[in-house]
Amino acid sequence: MNKSLKGIVASKGIAIGKAYIFEKVKVEVDKSKIDNSRINEEIKRARTAIEDYQNDLNNQVASSEEIQGVIDAHKELVSDPYLIQTIESKIEDQNYTSDHALKETIDEMVSMMAMLDDEYLKERATDYKDIGEMVMYKLKGIVPKSLADLDEECIVIAEELTPSDTSVMKKELVLGFANDLGGKTSHTSIIAQTLSIPAIVGMKDITSNVKHGDFIILDALEGEVLVNPAEEVIQKYQALVLELEAEEERLSKIKDKDSITLDGREVEVVCNIGSLTDLDLGLENGARGVGLFRTEFLYMESNQFPSEETQFEVYKKAAEKLGDMPLLIRTLDIGGDKELPYFEFPKEENPFLGWRALRICFDMEDVFRAQLRAILRASAFGNVKILLPMIISVSEIKKVNALVEKYKEELRRENREFNENIEVGIMIETPASILIAEGLIQHCDYFSIGTNDLTQYLLAVDRGNEKISHLYDNYHPAVLRAIKHIIDVSHKAGKWTGMCGSMASDSHATYLLLGMGLDEFSTVGSQIGKIKDIIINANYEEAKAFADKVLSMTEVEEIERAIDSLEI
């Protein structure tokens, strides 16, 4: 074996075959200033390029619902008035060429998205880069290289594959792919998961270490690429591929089953979404509802705060798709790392602890009113629930409950339908919410644990800081005891607790969380079958005993050894 290269698993599996190096055409941007006499000409060039790309999107035939979702997302992004107006203003006000104006506008959008802490939203930067690249090709008259031109089976090696690249590739010839860049929640990774194509991203320099035609093993279980391995290594992986295929076939028969333990305890396995496309993917994977609808993407994709009507239509469609299944809609959670292109946030020393989420909504009641009314109206079409982020006090819930009643009265006067008994729950993600949980549960209908922020705040560890990221650990005893406390408090009050943070998608933690009494796992679509499998084959009383043992432990390493020793 010559080399072993590491990266981030984006879509699990094993691929064995020859490397195909996919290199993009490099584009030189003309950064010279134009004369005023050329302004109209350059604006026209930009508009024509955008229209040409829009036509390509309109004419593209999708091979799956997920790819159609990417196409629809790109249609929306490239038609965004803010994007088009910004390009034109750079040409008019700064005398930029059309390609310079396009590049700078896209770079600004990418930079804004890449700064986000939320991995799902951060990965949308790739979509902006993608449409920028495709429009740039139109401007320059370049025909891009395409994975639609593949003529033999291969493992695709690239600096970064965009959604446009993966949406046109001959999937029957792509055994897997590995990229220098990218994250596991990007559209490209989601497509790989949907098509069951093994993929590793974030490899940093694989394009420099693999040559076209090299024989490679892509191990997207361990996040490793083996280059020109020995024959005995190849045989070992070929046997592993057969095992994985059998396991995949078995799990495909489980994903649509009810998640009920051997001794009769039923829990909900639902999904996290940020769009209607995500919802389709979740339902396809066997989700029985939505435990978190991240609504901020509706705001971040727009050039202004979305209207009540715009939001209502999206929430209504989601509710109708789900029928009786739950749809938990989280109210606007911007601020901190999530900015809007059309709204200037104040400069803050520590924005994560600053003016964000409900704090913004209370100060901008017209924005909050539009969202709450849209959610209430959508509740007439399905099992819709309201979910409130970043709660630290009982008074905040009381204030929201009062606003909900106020808007219900408005809707009654307008003869608009809604669910009079709509449930209101809160995110448990701050230390304050843990310590006053007994008071909070008296004023809401359920809890939903956001383990990402909860772990960060409890351990005083910035999960985005590489220097201390090793200290960020969901299995820390303080985190586990906080989770158990929250579940117990809700149960004592006759209510329920779900989890929508990344820990809910970690099948390593499923048995422990089941034993703690968690009522709902809100997970990524690709993990639904595995999590249901663990629940269906578990005995709840035995899981409870295991959880009690783990909760008495004081070291992360001891806890992880106990979990690793499980035979599930």
Task: Walk me through the structure.
With 568 residues, the chain is of the alpha/beta class. It folds into 3 domains: 108 residues, Phosphohistidine domain (Glucose Oxidase, domain 1, 3-Layer(bba) Sandwich), CATH 3.50.30.10; 105 residues, PtsI, HPr-binding domain (Enzyme I, Chain A, domain 2, Orthogonal Bundle); 297 residues, Alpha-Beta Barrel (TIM Barrel). Helices cover 47% and strands 14% of the residues. The protein is built from 24 helices and 16 strands. The chain has an 8-stranded mixed beta sheet. The longest helix has 22 residues. The two termini are 33 Å apart. 45% of the residues are buried. The model has no long low-confidence stretch (mean pLDDT 89).
Q: What is this structure, in a nutshell?
A:
This protein is α/β, with parallel strands linked by helices and about 575 residues long.
CATH topology of the largest domain: TIM Barrel
Query: How many domains?
Result: 3
Order of strands, widest sheet: 1-8-7-3-4-5-6-2
Largest sheet: 8 strands, mixed
Structural class: alpha/beta
How helical, in percent, are the residues?
Answer: 40-55%
Based on CA atoms alone, the radius of gyration comes out at 25 Å
* Strand portion: 5-15%
Overall pLDDT metric: 89
Query: Could you list the spans in which at least 5 consecutive residues all have pLDDT below 50?
Result: none
Number of strands: 16
Helix tally equals 24
CATH homologous superfamily label of the largest domain: Phosphoenolpyruvate-binding domains
In whole angstroms, the N-to-C terminal distance is 33 Å
> What is the correct CATH architecture of the largest domain?
Alpha-Beta Barrel
